[in-house]
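Researcher: Following up on the earlier apo prediction. This time include the ligand. It's zinc ion, with the SMILES given after the sequence.
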Amino acid sequence: MKCLTCNTIMEIEDRFCAQCGTMRPLLPHHFARAEGEFTRFRSEFLSGVIDQAAFIHAVKELTIQDETGSFWCIGVQSGQWYRYEENSWVPADPPVESTSL
Ligand SMILES: [Zn+2]
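Model: Understood. Below is the ligand-bound prediction.
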């Protein structure tokens, strides 16, 4: 997802923007949980605990639905969020938890 301050692409493991240091926005809990699972599966894949087919299968299982009914998944290769729109997966930034500012 993009940094809300400077639009730099942030990796899924990043807690802060590498460019400007802005904290990664908080995601709704089911999005945050999917990211946590993705990170775990990817590290298992990279360390050879699971094979690529198992990794892809596991990531597909992380597809979630938001409160408006849209489906979201994390790209196996990119580690970025995609939203299902008009029969295809389109890169998109997930909804961000509203802050109390
Ligand atoms: Zn930034």
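Model: The two ends are 21 Å apart (CA to CA).
Researcher: Noted. I'll compare it with the apo version next.
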